[in-house]
């Protein structure tokens, strides 16, 4: 959940990352240097945006970390020549790899010196201060101390005066993009997107709307919107990127191919599979023309995914096998890319009922993930384990699926910027726990997922609403009715806004909420909701749904009971969740809108 998605940036594309810019009059509004000392990897084809990993994940300052308060009292910082000297030392220390703590000391002293000199002269802070703050923020990020980087970068974006020319525009753009990356690593997607949008606006005002560097930033922002599941906005930005690249690049360029892969991803997410397939075929042709065999294979995997969504299974197998042949010959039999294709084939054969072949491919993929080749990232392994767990879940092996999800979550625990992904895994684990009757563990998993999603700015997404609904069901099984009611009510508000009142997830929450109100003795509220549901079915959804008669009978019973409300006895939760004792637990779960 998070994340969610991206495609590879072409290897020859101009760098998008910004951090410690050399602010010169002739420079453009995009720096050629990375935003952090560890360069950002190009986005991968996996369903989540790649994030840079810090040099280490220290959360607290080590004992020898410099104390800024002590540095403020250093009288030598009043020397106007000291700031530039310390800034150069900080940059040289980063480049030489001597150690981030030493560089941190230099950067803090440099920024303090620039501040003090400006105050003594009665002048506005200079762009040298901005540069030193960018360096300082980058060092904090490399240490995994993202919370400390935020106020530093927020200070940096307040200094530039955009009316003073290109230098200040570059400083402002770089600061917003670096701050956006830092918020992204903290999982605060909304704040991250807000910063990227401000950076893009500065760039457009400085360079115009059709500059190729504007196109790169539009694409970067589109990826962020995809991660936040804002697909309409992402599509708008991606179209703009395509227009800019068509204006400045040769036909079938690598840049255009990358844009089309992202556009295909957006179309697939919106259910427009034919358009997605068209973009992928064009992207594949461009990559073939540029001799990018591995990229062609990666696109073949995406094409296979589309064919599988369209139930064109023979064509999907052909695409997957083509990709598998290329990956094996270019990367080796034990590369995670090979395991990823094994996972897709396992899913395909499971869908077509060939369970023996499906199990074989699952085992082959797990064998590779168990002994990954050097250079394999934790995110790649976790993503693969999560995909395979879904297959075990669908063949009614929830315990095995749980083991894989627990391994995946353990791999991501200490990785920054993975809060949404971990929340998605925890939500899946909650479903597994619920299926095997471990309701307390299910509730705890859902609660942890909800907490992460709230902090990452996804509290208004449809996925968040579904997780709230699932947590509510776990609370019902634990007889925590008041808590379940609050969760269902919050889920209703979110799903009504995001999916509409006629969506099956929304109607499922209505049904759950009506049952909960009835259990609490709030008969009138339950009646009101059931009347609303029946009206939706009769006027918009049709009455062929098997739940219609059940809901109609329940409403009639509640109306009858409302006539003698003083003598009403609340129903037991068991009867509310499963009024027909002959129904299986799975059927009852489906009736109440629990989406597994």
From TrEMBL:
InterPro entries from the xrefs? Answer: TPR-like_helical_dom_sf (IPR011990), TPR_rpt (IPR019734)
Q: Which Gene3D superfamilies match?
A: Tetratricopeptide repeat domain
* Biased composition annotated in UniProt, kind: Pro residues: 36-46
Q: Where is this region: Disordered?
A: 1-78, 570-596
Comp. bias intervals (Low complexity): 47-56
Bias (Basic and acidic residues) occurs at 23-33
| Keyword terms | TPR repeat
Cite the repeat ranges for TPR: 130-163, 173-206, 297-330, 507-540
Q: Name one Pfam family in it.
A: TPR_12
Annotated signal peptide: none
Q: Does the keyword S-adenosyl-L-methionine apply?
A: no
Tell me the superkingdom of the source.
Eukaryota
PANTHER family (UniProt xref): PROTEIN KINESIN LIGHT CHAIN-RELATED 1, PROTEIN KINESIN LIGHT CHAIN-RELATED 3
This chain belongs to which protein, by name? Answer: Nephrocystin-3-like
Record the organism. Populus euphratica (Euphrates poplar)
